[in-house]
Amino acid sequence: MSDELPDITAPLTAVTPSSAERSRIAGYRLEQQIGVGGMAEVYRAVDERLGRRVALKILAPALAPDEAFRQRFIRESRAAAAVDDPHIIPVYEAGEADGVLFIAMRFVPGGDVRTLVRQHGPMAPARVVEIISSVASALDAAHAAGLVHRDVKPANMLIDVRPDRPDHVYLSDFGLSKGAMSSSRLTGTGLFLGTADYAAPEQIQGRAVDGRTDQYALACAAFELLAGAPPFQREQATATIWAHMSEPPPPLRARRPEIPAAVDQVFAAALAKPPESRYGCCRDFAYALRWALGLVQYGYGPAPQIRVVPPAVGPAARGAPGPIAQAPVAVSPQRPAHGAQATPPGFGYQQAVPPSPQFDRRGQAKGAWRSDWTAWALILAGPVAIFGLIIAPDGHAAGGYGALLFFGGLLAIPVALIGKAVRRQRRRRALGR
């Protein structure tokens, strides 16, 4: 058999593993098909020049004659390769060889998160938080570079599993919105590119999208990891779209009663219909979710504040067609950051990320003693007791007050010490220490 692909114009699914082992594209030897989508197919391959294993994505032959798809495939893949974040899957090369468009990227052996959910069901909150936090970091880096993913979902979250080291999460398929027509995927003239189960209302309506659109999809994915299914999953794609446009997110506690009630408020904010009512950036959402689940570690700053405005009574609430207007307002938390980070124009973020707070050696925010009643009790107990001791020998009334102050000051010291010990123990228990 020839060393080239048997028929590059035929569907790539016709390439069997035995023939793929001897098929080459631009110096890459194809080994096995590992994924397929509406726009491209992915093969495990070997870079014969460097001797490393890669994932090779090839534009679907049916789309190859379409110049718009060809230009988009190359332009957006190269743009994604320029984004610097440890949770964006590295792109080694993107180009064209003998009429075949390809992207070579890091091969991730652990599979995708969607497969894990299908095999094992809902995930533990701690693992969900780590996955969502990693993807949020990747998305914010892309948004800062002017890119919108438009297809954030568990199937595009890859887990690199290696022995003797923690799992590492990558976000893949930047800007490559796959859209084979099915119950959950839509594409075509007048329709949106993306996946209906995770599409924000503005994306469905064909309006301008920005980083908050990806945040909405990330929240849908987080809900699925915790509940086992997306928040607006329906049998028909049209029903899913209608739910995104008009229905509030279902309560997560109805599926997992052990989840804290604050988690539903976080999802209400991230899944708000108006983009301006969502969080300032994806990491703010991930941080609020971590706080609501009680998984915050030292150094994360104070808890986020979320104010949810009750939905207005609209036509749908009265039984008539029409969306239910909702306006949950998310107040971004004071999360640590490396200096103030302004969001580029056009991405809808109305605030800069605040600078990092300062913490002492015990992981507490400096100046937190000002709002700590135990610290104030210890500071004031001594002077109060001494003052009471001074006025105790005076007349009957002053002497009585002096005695009360003296014994009250003495009693405040052990009470404050016990309170401080209880607070410290609760904090350690919340952090799992």
Provide key terms for this protein.
single chain; 433 residues; alpha+beta; Transferase(Phosphotransferase), domain 1; 35% helix; disordered N terminus
Task: Give a short synopsis of this structure.
Helix content is 35%, strand content 15%. The chain is α+β, with helices and mostly antiparallel strands and 433 residues long.
Q: Would you give an account of this structure?
A:
By secondary structure, this protein is α+β, with helices and mostly antiparallel strands. It folds into three domains: 12-106, Phosphorylase Kinase, domain 1, CATH 3.30.200; 113-312 and 322-331, Transferase(Phosphotransferase), domain 1 (Orthogonal Bundle); 370-430. The protein is built from eleven helices and twelve strands. It has helices at 17-20, 67-81, 113-120, 125-144, 201-204, 211-227, 237-246, 262-270, 282-292, 373-391, 396-430; strands at 23-25, 28-36, 40-47, 52-59, 91-97, 100-106, 157-160, 168-171, 185-186, 194-195, 305-309, 327-331. A six-stranded antiparallel sheet has the order 1-2-3-4-6-5. Strand 5 (91-97) and strand 6 form a beta hairpin. Helix 8 (262-270) packs antiparallel against helix 9 (282-292) and helix 10 runs antiparallel to helix 11 (396-430). The longest helix has 35 residues, at 396-430. The protein is elongated and about 105 Å long. 34% of the residues are buried. Residues 1-22, 176-191, 307-329 and 333-370 have low confidence and may be disordered.
